[in-house]
Amino acid sequence: MSNQQDYDCIVVGAGIQGSFTAYHLAKNNKRTLLLEQFLLSHSRGSSHGKTRIIRKAYQHDFYTHMMEECYLLWAKLEAEANATLLRYTLPLMEFRSILERSQVPTETLGPEEFSQRLPQVSLLAGEGALIDTTAWVLYANWALRAVQGGVIKDGDQVTDIQPGSTVTVTTATEVYRAESLVITAGPWANTLMAYTGLQIPLQVVKINVCYWKEKVPGTYGISSRFPCFVQLGVEGSQYHFYGLPSNEYPGLMKICYYMGSETEPNERDQQTDRTDVHLLSQFVSHYIPGLEPEPAVVESCLYMVTPDHHFVLDCHTHHNNIIIGAGFSGHGFKFGPVVGKVLCELSLGQMPSYDLSPFKIQRFQSNSKSSL
């Protein structure tokens, strides 16, 4: 009879990616342990908060392809949990080429038609928009709770990992063993990979998540079906702006800048740079005059960013039974169902359902190395 501390797979990190990995492993009848260093539910990583935009519109075909199954799996989780995890709205997108190439249903609005449809938004001269009619609002915190299950040990930090044919994981309280290990630790992935001798060029950045007060309540609310939006190419900004209708806080619209400032994950509250907040204030003043130009609430979120902003979904360079899911670069939550599926497949030694070549560790070449 096996020891109670022995498992088929250990997943470290109970954010959306790790939770879906454990979910798929359980569906495969594998003895799975999901480890989380913080007490659930916490707000220290990347998977907290109430809402995310879920969409098929992407500049890269491999993401659009993955999103097809993501929608099906999100709907399946909704049915299993008997809870509303998705809500329809009309996000605005500008990814014209990928939308047309992958036949994602869209509608083009010229400046005049746009101003008639959405008088609450003031576009600059000559600007128009694409509407991706497949996009929804995803209730992130409800989704995370719905997918978490099985054997979960929270409030238990990993202090060492010993690779081998059986992987040994030591925490502050226990020693666990498993045939395979999946690391989905978000901003703490670098620390855990270092135990295994692996280094990947991942950067942790702190995002200021800003909420802006409506001058007239209900103007930008989800109940009035005000759309989510993504705005690209605003002068003076390297990255895009995005927004979701007021929902999390009554009368406050969530509008954020895609990028933030580098930080250490355990020292994020010491990172006080507000350059992104200044850019957002300018954006709100120009585009959404029905909001107060200074944020009413500022929260924080951590991204783990790769140099090319694509995920890492791969086996360890020296240990095939250690799987890495990292670097989701601020756009990974919506992919949780499929990311968890392929990480499960890799941990079981199966052929992954998708071409993972865009997500290989080896693409970093000289930037990626092992100390073993």
Automatic annotation (TrEMBL):
Its cofactor is FAD. InterPro entries: FAD-dep_OxRdtase, FAD/NAD-bd_sf, MTOX. The keyword Iron does not apply. It holds the Pfam family DAO. The keyword Zinc-finger does not apply. Keywords: FAD, Flavoprotein, Oxidoreductase. This is Pipecolic acid and sarcosine oxidase. Belongs to the MSOX/MTOX family. GO terms for biological process: L-lysine catabolic process to acetyl-CoA via L-pipecolate. One of its GO terms (molecular function) is L-pipecolate oxidase activity. It comes from Salmo trutta (Brown trout). Residues 8-346 form the FAD dependent oxidoreductase domain. One of its GO terms (cellular component) is peroxisome.
